[in-house]
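Milestone M4 deliverable, item 7.
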Amino acid sequence: MNRTIIIGLCFCFVISCKKENATTKKIAKNIEINMVDEVKLSGGSLYRIDSFPTTTIKSRPIDIWLPDGYTETKKYAVLYMHDGQMLFDSTTTWNKQEWMVDEWASKLMKEGKTKDFIVVAVHNISEIRWNDYFPQKAFDYLTEEDKKSIFDDAMNNDQNANLNADNYLKFLTQELKPFIDSTYSVLPELENTFVSGSSMGGLISMYAIFEYPDVYGGAACISTHWPGASPRENNPIPEAFFKYMRAHLPSASNHKLYFDFGTETLDQFYPQYEDEVNEIFLEKGYDEINFKNLKFEGMDHSENSWNQRLDKPFTFLLKK
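Output delivered:
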């Protein structure tokens, strides 16, 4: 039987499992957080804010995954992840695939391979996902002719080309993170604050650490979508990204960046950028300790490929 408990400043956490779930509710700063009792998890508990209040972007659900044994007497690192509705349960996703975040996070923490951490999963809104995730300031490195071409293509396809990544990061950093820091038992410093995503989510993760190097200590950019839009010949967008990166790369002394790519489906367009990405980081003092750009032969552009290697970025960013 489901139980509803309303409490003020502290949780009564109930561990969820695949056979039996309980529902709890918390009110923090007038924001209601409910346990997601219909989700199928292998470990930990999932809580949801149905529509996080914001003045900067379109409001959306936020999920907070807490590991088994979460307690206010310990402090946890925080991993912010994009495309939050795709991370935990394949029975609820549009393509019946998932990242298996709870499986990998639980396993790695149990084995002592990572710090203890929680995951904050920001849902996307599919109609504006590209607008939220395209690194906005990199657009300035395109020629006016190329900018016009991109906007014209969008208009011809009845699409909105208005970029909103700066507001999305403002929401993530100035609205959501302060709420998480004050509501959960977490370590707020950059060395314990990380961001991760795939495809366009890989681009916005890269952009987050470049724009807010004093906030995020590491980023995992999985199957990073360097074409920026639909792949095409003579695409000016990747070079605009690389010019932006060269001009804004955060210090190698206290940041980690992980990139990877497969070789099949959409990922087949990514290996061509491997050498230039490596060059950008190596010329700025990064090495194998704080930079990875890994190739996974035969892997495609899907959650079922990403969930086979999620231990790599998790241990790279959160290694104990």
